[in-house]
Amino acid sequence: MQIIDEFIEVPESLKLLSDFYPGKRIMMFDIETTGLSAFQSFIYIIGVNEIVDGKWRIRQYFNDDGMSEPEIIEAFEKALPDYDAVIEFNGDKFDFPFVEKRMGQIQMKTGRQIENNHNRIQKIDLMKLIFPYKFALGLPNIKQKTIERYLGIHREDKYNGGELISIYLDYLSDNDSRKKHLVLQHNRDDMVGMISLLPILSIHSVAKGSTTVPALSTKEKGSKLYLCLSGQLKQAVPETIEAFAYHCDLKASGKSICLEVPLEKKTLLYFTPGGSGKVADYEKTSLFAPGLSTWVNQLMSYKESGRNKECFYEVNDAFLGNGEALMNYMGQMCGLIMEDRGKNR
Asked: How far apart are CA 268 and CA 339, in angstroms?
């Protein structure tokens, strides 16, 4: 086994970690394998990003002789308890299961048992975070390079993963330093690329509606009156986001976010939240905004019938003067809009 360390200048995007995960010790990781099947192939590089003495280090555990896989896995697993969380890209689906299966294969074939520490650490999969918003962001897929291009990052690999497998296997035969450099550089670029994906956290915060208490205003568009909720995000989004669903408009640019919700004047039957669904003995006419009614029980919920799933909030002083309720409502509607697949557009 060979360990290669490189210290790099701390990128601006790394500051997002302290904003979204304050006080947590975080590392990132990525693996390179000789194939997709953990039963027919093995790991030849484990790359790790981590903070060491206030500096950002890329560490690569390199299976330099084709036989050091147990050592690089064990070194990686021993490093994990020093951290609270690990950030990866598609690691929940591929990297971690692959490592675990290889640990099982190593124990079965050699009797060597490697302690599994990755099941004890919080995992933050950037692919999982951005997947629900693929439609809203206009992404054709959620491959790492596609997301990098969306974020304005362009890098060219001379070789793809499949080509690098043969280069690595050739290196084991001829010990060519150029081939070694190529496989290590590819993993190193992936690790730097993962740092560049951290603005995904800002996009995720838009979908969660994580803002200050929104400011209120109204505007007319055509014959409709809209309630406008405007707030500030913790961090700026990397690209302007514009999404529309449920007749609502959502726009985030920089640190600003605005939600425009159409208001309707309707006479609806009154039902108590979580009640039996039986009609009360009166009706009420007021202004309403679309949404769901699960988060603030003290506010009245109106439905056209007990079985109708379309709920409304009454736009009254109890709602408009409740900062927490406004934040919850904005967060809920932002999530619905960002995760919409097009049927409500």
From this structure: 28
| Separation of CA 26 from chain center | 15
160, 38, 26: which is closest to 97 by C-alpha?
A: 38
**DSSP summary character for residue 239:** S
DSSP code, position 233: B
Q: How many CB atoms lie within 10 A of CB 290?
A: 18
Asked if 240 and 251 count as a contact pair (C-beta separation under 8 A), the reply is yes
CA–CA distance, 159 with 165 (Å, rounded to integer) = 10
Q: Each residue's pLDDT tens digit in the chain (345 positions)?
A: 999 999 988 777 787 888 888 889 999 999 999 999 999 999 999 999 988 887 889 999 999 999 999 999 999 999 999 999 999 999 999 999 999 999 999 999 999 999 999 988 999 999 999 999 999 999 999 988 899 889 888 776 677 778 899 999 999 999 999 999 999 999 998 888 888 899 999 999 898 888 888 999 999 988 889 999 999 998 899 999 999 988 899 999 999 999 999 887 766 555 554 555 555 544 556 666 776 444 334 444 555 555 555 566 677 777 788 888 888 888 888 998 999 876 666
Report pTM.
0.81
Contact in structure between 31 and 45 (CB atoms under 8 Å):
yes
